[in-house]
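Anyone have tokens for tRNA (uracil-O(2)-)-methyltransferase? Sequence:
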Amino acid sequence: RSSYSCRYFVLPCCFFDFHGKYSRRQSKKTQYREYLDFVAQVGFVCGFHVEEDCLRIPSTKRVSFIGKSRTYPPTEHALIDKQITQFINSRRTCAVAMCDRRVGFKHKDHCDGLCEEVGSEHPEDGTETAGTIWMPGFQPREKVEQIRNCASLPRGFVDEVVLNVANLLLNAAPQKSCSDMQGGNTNTWNQGESLSLREVAEHLNKETLKKLKSEYGGLQTLLKNNHQVFEVLNGRVHIRDWRKEKPASKTKPEVKRRLSAEAFKTRLCWFFIHHPDGCSLPSEACPYAHGTEELR
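Reply: yep, here.
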């Protein structure tokens, strides 16, 4: 709708309509195929010759749509734009319209899901926005998207949470002697207990939880980011035992093998520094450095 010369590319993924989750209407198609047909329909309604392509990417959602040319001459642009508005409004439910009264909707009884947009063509301040010329309440996201996947949290804060959670798991089980480790018996290495994410959260202070709640995924994301120390499975947190990790496959492509080798011992081993029994692996087998002298 931005201009007649506009062209587009879209890779449909999550099943959403204009105003919420997409509702299935045909049981004979898969959910993915039905949603793809809906996205293609949007392109057709907007007056595009819609082309479909399958991308060569490692994903189950690979079908894309491209709109490069219009099905109508420039003189009919206003007519098609009116058709687009009607199409959008036809997919908006009455309930949503009632909630949006404060942004310029006039709701009528028995409207069968169709809502009339009023007072939006001539805003009082003389400025036109997407919310006034296209659809009331439309708010585009910021140009600069805030990173909220725990990656931007202060390093000191993350290290403190990791250490607290690890000590919690280690102290949840009776301490096991590590006196036999020198003799080759590594079964005494203390892996601690597993706890649910809820149990772990209950032992963290309020300030820590407040910081984590502002991040996507919160505590679970932070623990998963620290793959070296933790393993999160089915909502339970475990301390990772690197003796159980599968060795690198010899059938890996040369490029992946080389990248894996280059990443070897580029970070310090958390267990060597913090675990009461040290690392469960000998230095030559551990992918992390046992001391700064081993760092690459």
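The CA atoms of residues 253 and 261 lie 12 Å apart.
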